[in-house]
Every structure is written in C-alpha cells, then in structure tokens.
C-alpha cells in the first residue's frame, strides 16, 4: 500500500488511518486520477427523492477499467445532497478499485462509516 501511496504522490494530508481501514481524502482521489490519467463517467441508475444510485466507470488506458456504484439515502447519508454524495462515492470507489487500493480496505472520505 505504501508503494501505491508514494507512486501517486499522496501526502500525509491525503491519508487518514482509522482503526479498521484507511481513508483517502477527496484531494487524494484527485491526485490518483491525475497521476494515472483516470477518466470517470457516470450513469444515473436510480434518482428518487430519498434514494440515489449512480454508476461510475473509471478507465485507465484502453483496456483497464472498472465499474461500481455509489448510493445515498437517509440510512447512509448525513446530508441532504444525495446526488452529489452518490457521485462522490461512486467516483472514489471506482478510482480506488482501479489502482488496487479498495481491496486493502482503503475508502474514500465520502463513505458513510458505521462503527460496530
């Protein structure tokens, strides 16, 4: 993981350690996108007043891509901006999956974290 952080120019301000996972800030996600020339496109899956699902497709080059989803609703979002939150979650997840960090319990800062 440290090598991936270094390769993407992430600083201490971009990374926060949690007891169960690592969180990368929005600026850290943007750095990863820039360093890797990652492009993200979005598709609306569900747009309701109280629940939004956005699909993100992140691509790096011609042959490397990943699709994933971001969702937001009253059960997992503390603000009223469901579309923006779902988009941020979809983007973060797709970028982190594409560079191999999501499998190491690295999350974007827009994830709703539920403590157990």
- Cα-atom radius of gyration: 14 Å
Question: What is the 3D shape?
Answer: globular
Report strand order across the widest sheet.
Answer: 1-2-6
Q: Biggest sheet, open or closed, and with what strands and sense?
A: 3 strands, mixed
- The CATH class name reads Alpha Beta
Distance separating the two termini: 25 Å
The CATH architecture would be 2-Layer Sandwich
Number of strands: 6
- CATH fold group: Double Stranded RNA Binding Domain
Question: Structural class from helices and strands?
Answer: alpha+beta
**What is the total domain count?**
1
What is the number of helices? 3
Query: Residue ranges: pLDDT <50 for 5 or more in a row?
Result: none
- Order of helix and strand elements from N to C terminus: HEEHEEEHE
Notable characteristics:
three-stranded antiparallel β-sheet, 3 helices, globular, 116 residues, Double Stranded RNA Binding Domain, alpha+beta, three-stranded mixed β-sheet
Written account of the structure:
There is one protein chain. With 116 residues, the chain is an alpha+beta fold. The strands form two sheets. The chain has a three-stranded mixed β-sheet. It has a single domain, classed as Double Stranded RNA Binding Domain, CATH 3.30.160. It is built from three helices and six strands, in the order αββαβββαβ. It is 29% helix and 33% strand. Strand 3 and strand 4 form a beta hairpin.
Could you provide a short overview of the structure?
29% of the residues lie in helices and 33% in strands. With 116 residues, the protein is α+β, with helices and mostly antiparallel strands.
């Amino acid at each position: 993981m440290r090598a991936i952080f270094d390769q993407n120019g992430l600083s201490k301000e971009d990374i926060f350690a949690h007891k169960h996972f690592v969180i990368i800030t929005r600026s850290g996600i943007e750095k990863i996108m820039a360093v890797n020339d990652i492009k993200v496109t979005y598709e609306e899956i569900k747009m309701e007043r109280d629940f939004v699902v956005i699909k993100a497709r992140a691509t790096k080059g011609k042959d490397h891509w990943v699709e994933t989803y971001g969702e937001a609703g009253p059960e997992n979002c503390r603000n009223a901006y469901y579309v923006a939150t779902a988009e941020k979650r979809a983007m973060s997840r797709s970028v982190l999956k594409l560079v191999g960090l999501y499998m190491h319990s690295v999350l974007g800062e827009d994830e709703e974290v539920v403590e157990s």
